[in-house]
Amino acid sequence: SCTSGSGSGLPFLVQRTVARQITLVECVGKGRYGEVWRGQWQGENVAVKIFSSRDEKSWFRETELYNTVLLRHENILGFIASDMTSRNSSTQLWLITHYHEMGSLYDYLQLTTLDTVSCLRIVLSIASGLAHLHIEIFGTQGKPAISHRDLKSKNILVKKNGQCCIAD
Which residues form the Protein kinase domain (predicted)? Predict the structure, then answer.
């Protein structure tokens, strides 16, 4: 598998060409900064968050954050790449991440009744991801303490194993 030295996604030069290899399949959500699409890349589903060029600062901030050393954690959304592409004569800024077909915790809770064990699995996975964000790791391979600032059920994704990962 091909990753950058930080373990936070593809090497930077590879990231810059990923958009050309992705087929957008369906729009799965709209947010403050644009749309989220399910895409196909190398035979796998990926999530593609598409920012408009006017939201370049937001795209850059998220890209920079996901490229932070040691951000990889099972309860934080997995980053693949970021890229710029031109569609319909306008620039689009893409953030490509793992795709979780079960959707947001918000949507999941509308349709699902949880037993105690499932509820605890969700709560512990969110707490684990949040603790990893908040902890500062020192050294050359370290990471700063990171504050999420918008943690809510719509920004948490449900994984197939019943755990969650923090997004946005």
Answer: 22-168
**Is there a single domain that holds both residue 135 and residue 93?**
no
Do the domain assignments include residue 4? no
Choose among 143, 50, 42, 131: nearest CA to 94: 50
pLDDT value at residue 162: 97
In a domain, 2, yes or no: no
* Domain match, 90 and 113 both: no
The per-residue pLDDT for range 86-107, each reduced to its tens digit, is 877 888 999 999 999 999 999 9
pTM, full prediction:
0.85
Secondary structure class of 32 (helix, strand, coil): coil
Task: Please give the average per-residue pLDDT across 73-91, as a whole number.
Answer: 89
Q: Is 49 annotated as a binding residue?
A: yes
Token pair, residue 15, equals 């990231």
In the chain, beta strands by DSSP E: 23-31, 34-41, 44-52, 79-87, 90-98, 156-158, 164-166
Catalytic choice (55, 107, 115, 150): 150
Share of the chain above pLDDT 90, in %: 60
Question: Which residues, other chains included, contact 144 with Cβ-Cβ below 8 Å and sequence gap of 6+?
Answer: 68, 136
Same domain, 118 and 75: no
Q: Does residue 83 carry a catalytic annotation? A: no
